[in-house]
Design brief:
single chain; mainly alpha; globular
């Protein structure tokens, strides 16, 4: 073991983890040496393709920056999942660069999704065009040429994963690049990333360690898995986009040399990570590939006109500012810090309440530390979305009469026991040993559960959808559907859609890689409202419902409401 801590969390790194972090940082620094610029006078698909690697590189840097930070460990899983999805897309496009144009189909699909959600949630649409097109109409991105309204969208992530698993070799491109995602237990690993990415109870368990802060730090095997997938995703995006838009490659850099070094570094990350997480195949199995999934997206018959063409007179200028929202958020942060509860005051604590309370703190700190940092926007938005989901689940969990509470808690925890079992079965079905598959979900010895993780009630009832929980969470507001809409908008960033590409740019001289004011205001608003629920409720429960904690909870809600009132003048929701 290393003799001294080397990261802000104060934990001692093992030699293996130190090696992984060194290699990960080397890959990050190498990727940062590639010059990337904006080309505003080009076809729209070329413009979007030119942004893909730049934004993937940014998310990889965000993930690397959070390692050992002492908070927000589970957000690394969200960023890794985003890079995995991006890598699948660009692997598919890179095998046939004529597919590049289908990025525009994705832009239309996501704009249409936003239009439909505005309608279905009955939220006033004063800001709709800003959410669809937050930058000036460069590169025909508003669709005024009417030349790409009927372009087909890219396959879904599920379809792309199916395509990857059913083809041993690609139809084009570099097999070394493709092999980066050819890891043992890929489908099971994707499930683990998904749990972490949604900030749920099972995902927060990735923070349970012998020596780290609960809900803040990240266990080594999960860090290794997350960074392996992140490294593969960012390098595949690099290679795929370089093939799709070779005309944008900087002349001063030799493309083959640069990509070869990136692939070699990513291979080192993957090899080092596998030694830590232990998900190695111990027996050969037939590829576990289900039948080809159906595309369950809304048919083009539901396409809203604004999704394809945004009239010039509907485009709104970028004149908003978030200064007053940030000031309100900083005031909320001060209120949040006015009371700190010790969950272990009696020597023991409730795991689920402590995860809720500490998880709220960890994710809130992630937002507040990162939203002002250059290039850290994806981290802040991802954490805000995770807070929103967990606040909706916590509200559902605690919003019933005492005589119904036990049944709801059983339903809640059985959901995650079932998810855990499903992931383990997927891993073992891929040839991973049962021991290794169970170890990736094992709890440290300082965590003791009253009910075994593999024990579930008969006739288990699944949880309500996150959509229905968000509707319940939004009931007190003038426009109750606004949180459901907010989730859709924040998800654009989490899933790195073409709409998200546009929200990570600000027009100017020069253009900058910054969040749109609407997206930043929404992230701050949602983070404060959601963390007020989690931290306030958690503090109250951990303090045995005493008056001081109850008053603290009310003060948090009041401060969060001030943030919301300020943010409404920017994002115009609710």
């Amino acid at each position: 073991m290393s003799s001294t801590p080397s990261r802000p969390d104060g934990r001692v790194e093992s030699p293996e983890l130190s090696d992984l972090r060194t290699t990960t940082r080397a890959l990050r620094f190498h990727l940062d040496t590639l010059p990337v610029g904006y080309n505003l006078n080009c076809p729209p698909d070329q413009f979007l393709a030119g942004l893909a690697f730049m934004l993937a590189r940014q998310r990889f840097a965000c993930a690397d920056s959070m390692l050992g930070a002492g908070f927000g460990g589970s957000v690394v899983g969200t960023l890794a999942r985003s890079l995995f999805s991006e890598g699948l897309r660009w692997l598919w496009i890179g095998e046939d660069p004529t597919r590049r144009r289908r990025i525009l189909g994705d832009l239309i699909e996501e704009r249409n999704r936003i239009c439909l959600t505005f309608e279905q949630t009955d939220v006033s649409s004063d800001s709709l065009t800003r959410w669809l097109m937050p930058i000036p109409n460069v590169a025909d991105l508003a669709g005024h040429s009417h030349t790409w309204a009927n372009v087909e969208a890219l396959p879904t992530e599920t379809e792309l994963l199916h395509d990857f698993l059913t083809h041993q070799r690609g139809t084009g491109g570099d097999d070394r690049v493709r092999a980066l995602l050819d890891m043992e237990g890929l489908q099971g690993a994707v499930k683990i990333l998904e749990y972490a990415g949604h900030g749920n109870y099972l995902g927060l368990m990735s923070s349970l360690t012998l020596d780290g802060a609960i809900a803040h730090d990240l266990r080594a095997d999960h860090e290794a898995l997350f960074m392996q997938v992140a490294a593969a995703g960012v390098v595949i995006t690099l290679a795929g986009s370089a093939t799709a838009v070779p005309e944008l490659w900087p002349a001063e850099m030799d493309k083959d040399t640069f990509i070869d070094k990136a692939v070699a570094l990513a291979e080192r990350v993957c090899d080092t990570a596998a030694k830590i997480h232990g998900l190695r195949r111990v027996r050969k199995t037939a590829a576990q590939v289900s039948k080809k999934p159906r595309d369950n997206r809304a048919p083009r018959g539901l396409l809203r006109p604004m999704a394809a063409v945004i009239p010039q007179d509907e485009l709104l200028p970028d004149v908003n500012t978030v200064e007053h929202v940030a000031a309100a958020a900083e005031a909320y942060w001060e209120v949040a810090g006015s009371l700190v509860v010790n969950p272990w005051k009696d020597g023991r604590t409730s795991l689920n309440i402590t995860l809720m309370y500490a998880g709220g703190w960890s994710l809130l700190e992630t937002v507040m530390v990162n939203y002002t940092q250059p290039g850290a926007a994806p981290t802040a938005v991802s954490a805000a979305r995770m807070l929103l989901e967990e606040a909706a689940r916590a509200t559902w969990r605690y919003s019933v009469a005492p005589d119904k509470a036990e049944a709801r808690f059983v339903q809640y925890f059985d959901e995650y026991r079932a998810m855990r079992r499903n992931a383990i079965n997927t891993l073992t079905g891929s040839g991973i040993s049962t021991k290794a598959a169970e170890q990736i979900f094992a709890l440290p010895p300082n965590v003791q559960l009253t009910k075994p993780l593999n024990q579930m009630a008969k006739g288990r009832q699944p949880l309500p959808t996150i959509t229905s929980m968000l509707r319940d969470l939004g009931k007190p507001y003038p426009e109750p559907g606004w949180l459901e809409l907010a989730y859709t908008l924040l998800s654009q960033m989490t899933h790195s859609t073409p709409v998200a590409y546009l929200h990570t740019m600000r027009a100017g001289d020069p253009w900058t890689n910054d969040l749109s004011p609407e997206m930043l205001a929404l992230a701050l608003d949602v983070a404060c409202l959601s963390s007020a629920r989690l931290i306030g409720l958690g503090a109250w429960l951990l303090s045995d419902l005493n008056a001081e904690a109850d008053n603290y909870r009310k003060q948090l809600a009041k401060a969060a409401a001030n943030v919301h009132n300020a943010a409404r003048s920017v994002h115009f929701l609710d």
